[in-house]
Amino acid sequence: MTALDSLPPWLMALVAFFLVLGSTLTLLGAFGLFHLKSFYDRIHAPTLGTSWGTAAILLASLLAWSWVQDRVFLHELVIGISVMVTTPVTLMFLGRAALHRDRVDGHGTVPPAAVTEPTREAVSSAGMD
Amino acid sequence: MTTVLWLALTWAQLALALAACLATWRIAVGPRAQDRVLGLDALYIATMLLFIVTGMRLGTPFLFEAALVIAIGGFMGTVSLAKFLLRGEVIE
After folding, report:
1. CB–CB of A30 and B18 under 8 A?
2. Does B46 contact A15 at a Cβ distance shorter than 8 Å?
3. Per the domain annotation, does A78 fall within a domain?
4. For A9-55, how does the pLDDT look when each residue is reduced to its tens digit (9 = 90+)?
5. Would residue A34 count as lying in a domain?
């Protein structure tokens, strides 16, 4: 903690608040991942860490480094945008994969597919018409 | 006032390390493959945040590049593993 000693007290309190908020939310999300019973419950828990956990820690880092270096740091912005954009994509993919696997194996109590998949012949004949 | 920041940094490092341990437990135990992939996703987020907090404590900006690489690489890893679970192959 060499460079951060030059922060004024109000900014130091703000940085400390955001650090504690972000790390506590990430810990709560990981505890939910550890504790909850079914996969479809567990998939929601780590999003605490990817939404406000990441946002608060990056905000604390942004405030501290912007004061120390006297310029706005862009690294945090790039990391934050990439995490916030990619997390829904990964969780949608993972949820669909889990649903597919549960339906194929007949594992657990997942609802069946709502609409029957059209066969390849039906699609091609409809396209021919 | 420095003490407040020291306490906050220590708490953040301990909480993020514990979060990484819980995600590792889910990877090791998780009953099915999708649980392990979800644990991997939570593990790389916690590790990336731990890198950022450690960079703040050490006063070096060089750990940001490592955190960025972890963020991008973790996204690639989770998406390709989920694609593998969904289709049975990664590149069709």
Report:
1. yes
2. no
3. yes
4. 888 899 999 999 999 999 999 999 999 988 888 999 989 989 999 99
5. yes
Domain that holds residue A86: 7-111
Give the one of A33, A64, A100 whose C-beta lies nearest to B86's C-beta: A100
Contact by Cβ (8 Å): B34, A91: no
Q: Is there a contact between A94 and B71 if contact means CB atoms under 8 Å apart? A: no
Domains and CATH numbers, chain B: 2-87 (1.10.287)
Option in B1, B38, B68 nearest A75 (CB): B68
ipTM score = 0.88
User: Can you list the alpha helix ranges (DSSP code H) found in chain A?
Assistant: 9-35, 39-42, 47-48, 54-69, 75-105, 120-128
Whole-model pTM over 0.90 = no
Beta-carbon neighbour count of residue A6 at 10 Å? Answer: 10
For residue A93, being part of any structural domain is answered with yes
Q: Which residues of A touch B4 (CB under 8 A)?
A: 12-13, 16
